[in-house]
Structures
1.
Amino acid sequence: MELRLALIGFGGVNQGLFELLLTKQDDLRKYGIDAKITAVTDLRLGTVINPAGIDTGALRASIQAGLSSVPLEADPGTTVTPDADLDATLKLVASDFVDVVVEATFTDPQTGEPALSHCRTALESGKHVITTNKGPIALAQKELVSIANRHGVLLKYEGTVMSGTPVLRQISTTLRGCEVTGFSGILNGTSNFVLGEVAAGKTFDTAIKEAQVLGYAEANPAADIEGSDVQLKVMIMANALWGAGLCRDDVSCQGITRLTEHEIRRAMTEGGAWRLVGSARRSPDGTIVASVEPKELPAGHPLLAATGVTNAISFDTDVLGLVTVTGPGAGRVETAFAILSDLIEIGEKVVADATEAAA
Ligand code: HSE
């Protein structure tokens, strides 16, 4: 079954997806999926459209030439527009030659825009949506799911929490049957990397700059360091687990900047470590308490398995007790993998629907 993709935003994550798709076509075919990119648009780089499928060689050549400094190269049959704006993008996501919209533009934690509009219009136009963008999911998950349900399409957002490490999918598949009463996790790769580097002797500033170069940090790294990135992730997790409808004001938030370099190094010499921990707990009466704060964890704490850019989350469950998942929490290809796994889930549904319709 052919799935035609529109990539909205062509920064690290969607470029990572593009590379991953080049190597994973055979794996996708195992699930009956033939993925083809028909549109790429990026505010900085412009727009490339080819309803028959963009020539991947030409696109790869553009990436290798350094997309930020040259316009996207394209093959005949492809339309190239040097710029992109909201109206054009909204028209694009609703186009006939698009089945799945992959939204990976920057996250705006206040309004979720323009990503929220991209997702809403795509779903209203009957397109499946995959996003790694925390803004629209944290702020409007309920509304977007309801639009998706109304239009018989899927909204997938595995990459919004812990990049490609399966966490949201654990809740919706393998943990079904368990009651999850709470979770606590290290959900930001950048701040965890920074804490580790500072513990090892670097300054905050140097460590943050390194995280930016490595592609872990948000466009505005204050979101990583001051906790608002984790705040959005806690909202997404709590809403996915309990339909909690939490908004930002419901999650108290404190970042790592109040810690001194001395404090961070002292904890390490004592065998523990400072971590930025996001957590939420639901009481039997349904009340939810959620927070983001730096915590000094003692040696042996399960969350200390997460070092560097690695993340970890522990679920408190009624049947299994504590279940901890550890894995990459940020990175271009790691986040792109989450999109690939969402694409497989969408493809399986599309193939199943087509098979049922043909029966
Ligand atoms: N800036 C985020 C992090 C990216 O460092 O965890 C993944 O959400």
2.
Amino acid sequence: MKICMIGAGYVGLVSAACFSEFGWTVTCVDKDENRSAELKAGRSPIYEPGLDALMERNMTAGRLTFTGELGPAVAGADVVFLAVGTPMRRGDGYADLSYVFSAVEEAAPHFDGFTVVTTKSTVPVGTSREIERRLKIKRPDADVAICSNPEFLREGSAIQDFTHPDRVLVGCDQARAREVMERLYKPLALRGSTVMFVDRESAELAKYAANAFLALKISFINEIADLCESIGADVQEVASAIGKDRRIGDKFLHPGPGYGGSCFPKDVSALIRTAREAKSPVSIIEQVERVNHERKLAMAVRIEAAAGGSVRDKTIAVLGVTFKPNTDDMRDAPSLVIVPMLQERGATVRACDPQGRQQAEPLLPGVIWCEGAQEAARDADVLVILTEWNEFRALDLEAVKATMAGNAVVDLRNVLDPEAALELGLSYQGMGRGKLASKNADNPRSRLKN
Ligand code: NAD
């Protein structure tokens, strides 16, 4: 089976590498010349655990190739995937479909024989129909079928998610296209994965509904965390208790600085706009968007409070800037709101991130970049854990404390052991840990410098 993947980003590149691992012949096209040159040389332009080895194996076997030229990759392909970006459109919050439509129009002259054109990008309801309409004008003679195959992988565990999916979802209106898609995903079906066929509108909406629901779960536990702080409960215990209920589930019940990343903010925004346009507003999701925005601002205020009420002329050490661990992706990361707010209020920010520095540097001007946590903590008044990279879980708190000027730790991901921090005399603040407030106050070893 011959596959053309248009777009070699987090989704396109991982999907291309995984399809080639199934034994299919995959050509991955990216119009970004630097990106396609890197890929041709066998180097991944993104950080994703396991991706380098997967690429190398399949490139060596001749099943995976990269190019910047669309024509030859599209010609003769059984399936042409659209895996280009669908960012939030400036000004109105809708999904920007310009990359999707340009990719379709660039590919159109090259369709050759029966071709299934499939969106892997997250696209609003009606996009498959619109692609069909445009292709009928551009290539009335082309033998094409349009499918929707939204992708549910998560950055950081993308290969595992792609190869062991909770389900594969295909929106398809034609028997011939369904046969092709069944053949494509047979390697996963044979291993027991569910491959679901639904109509195209349902597939398109399901992706937005899934992301909006997960965003809702995050905002819900963030508000419960705040309530825990007000009434003296512990959100870890509450989340663990409710997560055991199979109707609720224990995933996405970790309080934090608000969701970010390449998908949730833009997909929540696009769903809200689609629903308003359909005169069927999703008022709960509108509230989620508002709560999440305010959450990020509240985190800066929380850090300010830990610094004694003002960060002016204070040094803040920020550990982790990517929107989550195991990725270098900075899109809509909470750090992009929190760090500039601290700087505007007069703080010097020293930061480190295991993989994100290169992408973060141009986005966070004025930050002093450090090699690791220990260096970032030097002379800091407040230490903030913003992304839960594993290496921060095992932080040597004693060494960190020795190098800091102050003693406040704000753990926005609840990765540290509060007891150990308090024992060392640090003033520790986690998320939703209401019981700690009194322990902090009673702690005889705490030397509150701030
Ligand atoms: P990305 O920005 O990382 O990658 C998109 C790539 O497409 C870029 O490299 C760009 O140069 C290339 N491109 C754009 N137009 C092109 C064209 N005409 N021809 C060839 N290449 C072109 O985006 P991403 O994070 O991979 O997301 C892609 C889509 O998948 C989005 O709709 C996103 O919502 C969805 N999605 C993303 C994730 C994720 O975790 N990143 C998960 C599920 C779904």
